[in-house]
Amino acid sequence: MYTMRRGGAYDRFMMMLEALLEKGCQVYCLSLTPVQVQNSCFHNHVFFYPFRKKDNSMAKLTVFFLFPLWSLWVGWRNRIDLLVAFGSVYAFIMSFTKWLLQKPMVTFIRGDYSFALRMQNFPKTLLLLNKVIEYYGLLFSDKIITNNSTTRDEILKSLGKGRIPDVLVLYNNINPINILHPEDISETKEKYGIPENAKVLVTAGILTPGKNIELLINCLPQIRIENLYLFIVGDSPMETNLHYRNSLQGLARKLGVEEKVIFTGWIEKEELWKIYLASDLFVLPSLNEGMPNAMLEALGSNLPCLGSNIPGMKDILQYDELQFFPLDGKTLVDKIDHFFSNIEVLDRIKKLCQERKKVFTFDWKEEVFNTIKVFAFQKLLKKGL
């Protein structure tokens, strides 16, 4: 299902595949749509699904009820050594295979799936069912790799005192970013109709209600900076969230700032980096995050960042100067005003962001491969193999 969702979780999914394939591992991947990986060690088993739409309830039910048997067949036929689930729901789906084949399972937790369902106003009965499914998915896992410390603590708390898997925190990293040329700034501003002397804010990610972008748009008329523009980079690949983008555009019109708010839709990484280069400040007012890659990429582009003080984001930013309460528009307005009008504040924020950038500059693929390799080796030793 991740092959239908563009965003940070999908990027990490692909990086995990690359980490395993670069080390020569044979990888058998089950998916509803093709995974675009060209490698002789990669075996993509795409499930036959006769319907055109693959992001609706029927597709989800197909994955939920048929993938357990299919994963059992693929796992048994290819004599797999290790199961890897990218999310607690997928861990639940593969728990049947794990139990019958007696193979260890590693589960990656990238965010709060239950929160996403709540933001879509799912019925309470479905939310409760999802909670039960996630609980047993985690319980069947032998090792859980999450990307922030708060999620780790919540997982350990939810599992209680019974059988508790090993839960590890592995932060997302900042991937290498191509060095861009200063002349790209003028070209980017001209392309999007932004004056050369304008100040530019940017936010990026999958557009869902959890991103809380309306807070940022509501703040624009209150910020005492002339000629201020806002890039909103990203869109929603899921039909259920398309109305959110439309509501944001409607809000910008209502506030009279539609000419200052630029919705780019989905763009390639190189174009995103050009926008980062042409921007002055990255702001992410999310209500919930795992660990946002968009912010890490902004830091990697030497772009100063502000973000809401929520789990995942707090791990990245750490300092109070770089954070704000996600429902506190006044504080956000003040922080943006001070950033642009007070040179000492600007220098302080830039310095702190450079410090945080260094923390997240490491080889994530090497770390994740070594973690999986050590875990798999330990399991083999226990079996006396």
Q: At the fourth CATH level, what is the homologous superfamily of the largest domain? A: Glycogen Phosphorylase B
Number of strands: 12
Question: What percentage of residues falls in helices of 4 or more residues?
Answer: 40-55%
What structural category arises from helix and sheet content? alpha/beta
Sheet with most strands: 6 strands, parallel
CATH fold name of the largest domain, please?
Rossmann fold
Domain tally: 2
What can you see in these coordinates?
This protein has 385 residues and is α/β, with parallel strands linked by helices. It has 2 domains: 2-173 and 363-383, Glycogen Phosphorylase B (Rossmann fold), CATH 3.40.50; 183-359, Glycogen Phosphorylase B (Rossmann fold). It is 49% helix and 14% strand. It is built from 15 helices and 12 strands. The protein has helices at residues 8-22, 57-77, 88-101, 113-119, 124-140, 149-159, 183-191, 213-219, 242-254, 269-278, 293-300, 313-317, 329-341, 343-359, 364-383; strands at residues 27-31, 42-46, 83-86, 105-109, 143-146, 166-169, 199-204, 228-233, 261-265, 281-284, 305-308, 323-324. The chain has a 6-stranded parallel β-sheet, sandwiched between helices. The protein has a 4-stranded parallel β-sheet with strand order 3-4-5-6, covered by helices on one side. A two-stranded parallel sheet has the order 1-2. Helix 9 (242-254) links the parallel strand 8 (228-233) and strand 9. Helix 1 (8-22) packs across helix 15. The longest helix has 21 residues, at 57-77. The radius of gyration is 22 Å and the shape is globular. The chain starts with 7 loop residues before the first helix and ends with a helix.
